[in-house]
Design a protein that fits this description.
single chain, alpha/beta, Amidase signature (AS) enzymes, ten-stranded mixed sheet, 14 strands, globular
Length: 471
């Protein structure tokens, strides 16, 4: 057959060819390694590339499949975790100079589950240092570039994971989301990323930033691919007491394409207030398109959203200061200026303010629970702006200069506070050709509903352009 074009494939399409033995995992990995070699200098998506290890794993996968031991739709699929997921025998830097030589002796639970399903580690992706920032600008390992415009940000903190997907260097990447760090890069890079319900996916072996807000999740190039990966990753893990013993549904089976009668709520405040006009127009058009698919779209009011965003920031910065206290105290000069400034601020928060923010968290959860008695999902912008340039520190919104680090997590952060599942999907492009994403959120442990709505839009409405050539 013709040489595999990494720019035109997905997990769903490639897995069938592998299962039928029409394509070998060795051919797959060679194609992706060749692509990485060609575009890594332009987008800097990886901190570590595992050429030797990936080739060895591909040969083993090929032998298994030839013997009739096909494991799952992930067998032979290239996997690139964000570089804070522990990988046994492979360095895990967390995007920091401090951990440049750290080599774990074990895998994160989700890495083990994906590898056991047949996925092949091809590299570890670039990220914002210690995951503490929404831009992924990294002065230790270089900035990952947005494949749609390499001089622009990928968003963070899982920016390398999104760049690897949009740059056609992998088909499955992993991210973590503490204030939007999966969904922000997904929106800016035009890929799909889900933050599952808190407790749905194990955090064991994932370097922490904020214990009560961190959410690991998969990032892919299609909704069906996310469904495949999440089905493998999700479920109770005795090593992580935060995980819940809630049955994991067949997410693929939920992608029926039918959303007739699904109630879609659109918040009447906050989400559409501080937003680029192009983003607003594209997202509003996408929401209206859900009506054409049979959904019932209605405005909803959610109180206290601005206070909720402030509470999230207090919890995040305080817990981050505690998580990274040792490095902040003993090696401050080895921490990037932006991250160190955030740690300085977090260390100054009063315990009383932290407790008040945690108490307020419950109030916000109750507010959303009342809204979800009326609707099945909420639809909002994924990010209120398109990808800024590396040198841009602020953007003009509603006649005001808004810092980029404030604008990027504006629409995402609250769902970390309340732990609800939320997925970002591409819904269009700006006039400059930059991706725009829509965010769909749902009830606790109801990922199948948000994926069902996302898939219906992707299948029947979204006209995806070719992935960036970069060569």
């Amino acid at each position: 057959m013709a040489k595999l074009d990494t720019r035109t494939t997905t997990i769903s399409s490639l897995s069938e060819l592998i299962r039928k033995k029409e394509l070998s995992p060795v051919e797959v990995i060679e194609a992706f390694l060749e692509r990485i070699e060609a575009v890594q200098p332009k987008i800097n998506a990886f901190i570590t590339i595992l050429e030797k290890e990936a080739r060895q794993a591909a040969r083993a996968a090929e032998e298994e499949i030839v013997r009739g031991r096909y494991r799952s739709p992930l067998h032979g699929i290239p996997l690139a975790p964000k570089d804070l997921f522990f990988t046994a025998g492979v360095k895990t830097t967390c995007g920091s100079r401090i951990l440049a030589d750290f080599i774990p002796d074990r895998n994160a639970t989700v890495v083990s589950r994906l590898v056991d399903a047949g996925a092949i580690l091809i590299g570890k992706t670039n990220m914002h240092e210690f995951a503490f920032g929404p831009t992924s600008l990294n002065n230790h390992y270089g900035h990952p570039g947005n494949p749609w415009s390499p001089g622009r940000m990928t968003g963070g903190s899982s920016g390398g994971s999104a760049a690897a997907l949009a740059g056609s260097c992998a088909l499955l990447t992993l991210g973590t989301d503490t204030g939007g760090s999966i969904r922000i890069p997904a929106a800016l890079c035009g890929i799909v990323g889900i933050k599952p319900t808190f407790g749905r996916v194990s955090k064991y072996g994932v370097y922490p930033l904020c214990w009560s807000l961190d959410h690991p999740g998969p990032m892919t190039r299609s909704v069906s691919d996310v469904a495949i990966a999440l089905g493998v990753m999700a479920g109770r893990d005795p090593k992580d007491p935060c995980t819940r013993d809630v049955p994991v549904p067949d997410y693929l089976a939920s992608l029926t394409g039918d959303i007739k009668g699904v109630r879609v709520g659109v918040p009447d405040t906050f989400y559409f207030e501080q937003i680029d006009p192009e983003v607003k127009a594209v997202v509003e058009k996408a929401v209206n398109a859900l009506k054409d698919l049979g959904a019932e779209v209605m405005p909803v009011h959610i109180p206290d959203l601005h206070k909720a965003a402030a509470a999230t920031l207090i919890i995040l910065s305080t817990e981050a200061a505690a998580c990274l206290e040792k490095f902040h105290r003993t090696r401050p000069n080895d921490i990037g200026d932006d991250v160190r400034a955030r740690l300085d601020a977090g260390a100054l928060h009063l315990a009383t303010n932290y407790v008040k923010a945690q108490r307020f968290r419950r109030r916000v959860q109750e507010n959303f629970a009342r809204v979800f008695m009326r609707v099945d999902v909420l639809a909002t912008p994924g990010v209120s702006i398109t990808a800024p340039g590396f040198e841009e520190s602020s953007v003009r919104l509603d006649g005001k200069d808004v810092p980029v680090i404030i604008a990027l997590p504006y629409c995402t952060r609250i769902y970390n506070l309340i732990g609800l599942p939320s997925v970002s999907i591409p819904v269009g492009f700006s006039g400059a050709g930059l991706p725009i994403g829509m965010q769909i959120a749902g009830r606790p442990f109801n990922e199948e509903m948000i994926l069902r709505v996302a898939h219906a839009y992707e299948r029947d409405i979204y006209q995806a352009p070719p992935w960036p050539a970069l060569t």
